[in-house]
Amino acid sequence: MKRLLIDSPQNKLFQEAWELYLNAFPIDERRELDFQAKIMNQREYHFELIYLENVFVGFIAWWQFNQLRFVEHFATLEKHRGKGYGKLILQNFLSESNEQIILEVEHPNTDLDLRRIGFYQRIGFKLNPFEYQQLPLRKNGKKVDLQIMSYPELIEESTLNKFEKDFKEKCYNDYFD
Q1: How big is the chain by its Cα radius of gyration, in Å?
Q2: SS3 assignment for 43-55
Q3: CB within 8 Å of 16: residues ≥ 6 apart
Q4: What is the domain range of residue 62?
């Protein structure tokens, strides 16, 4: 498995990942392209394409904060789902650091939501009990009620509060002024 960091939408490899991004996430949980282009310049942000045997299978987009990694978006191409690639990709990512890792999931309202939560739980993520809203990722967007999962343990509410403050300052305020 190889992960390739892409730092600009002008990279010729970006388009296939962007199409996956647009298809894999609801409109309120994804950025518009101009906003995405701006954050790709942040050194803390990583938009990584994932290849297995030189075949594109998906991407992982994550942020590095102090003592915390936030997996903001993660998806594999539909034709590669059910083959264990998602598990392999995340296990590899988890093995790179001893830091706390968090990600967002929908509330368990549908079978798909339950399967997604179960997938992360089988890898070792814990579902946290805190109320959480994802900030709008687009102009005139709305906040989205989600839940936080964390690895390897549940997080403290103070850690979540610090993350939300840091994320808003670093990854949000400058883009919607």
Answers
A1: 15
A2: CCEEEEEEEECCE
A3: 56
A4: 2-175
For residue 45, give both structure tokens: 């942000």
Show the beta-strand stretches assigned E in the chain.
2-5, 45-52, 55-65, 68-76, 100-105, 126-127, 132-134, 144-151
Yes or no: say if 149 and 127 are a contact pair by the CB < 8 Å rule. yes
For residue range 4-40, list pLDDT tens digits in order.
999 999 999 999 999 999 999 999 999 999 999 999 9
Q: How far is CA 32 from CA 8, 37, 114, 160, in A?
A: 14, 9, 27, 26
**Total tally of structural domains belonging to the chain:** 1
Six token digits for residue 119 = 């997938």
User: Tell me, what CATH number does 88's domain have?
Assistant: 3.40.630.30
How many Å apart are CA 157 and CA 99, to the nearest integer? 16
User: Which tokens belong to 168?
Assistant: 């808003």
- Residue 10, helix vs strand vs coil: coil
